[in-house]
Amino acid sequence: MNWLTEWAFHLHLLMAISWIGGSVFMFILGVTLRDKKAQQSVYPYVGPIFGWFEVGSLIILLATGFILGYQYHLFSLLLHPNGSEVSQALVKKAILVAILTVATVVHFVIAYRTNGKERTKWQHFFSRGSSMLIFFLNLFVMHYAIVLRDIL
């Protein structure tokens, strides 16, 4: 393993821990803060900090994921799956990451545009829905990351 691969792996791991840990924290915060006043006092401050951190983490995760995919010659398996365990896990993880990325963009745009403002019924639905989707997708992406790491 060369220095680029080592750095990419460690940075990918650190960002994944930050991404998933932050997602779990925000999920728990959302579930436990039932009082509207408490939500309105917390989210306008915590939300933007967390949101920008998560966007940065996602960009680093995608970049290091591409580096690792290139270093381990995984793109040919991704584009031409052969039915092997690594091929199946890679395809599933890539699909989940694509959906996760779209859900993150949707959530971030709505949250950014409505921070400190009253949301419409649809904005609230898509913001909460994308947040829940992100939380659960993180668990599945983490599962396939572990499967891939065990194989590689």
Automatic annotation (TrEMBL):
Which UniProt keywords are present, listed alphabetically?
Membrane, Transmembrane, Transmembrane helix
Keyword Transmembrane listed: yes
List residues traversing the bilayer: 12-33, 45-70, 90-113, 125-146
Annotated protein name in UniProt: DUF4149 domain-containing protein
> Which organism is the protein's source?
Nitratifractor salsuginis (strain DSM 16511 / JCM 12458 / E9I37-1)
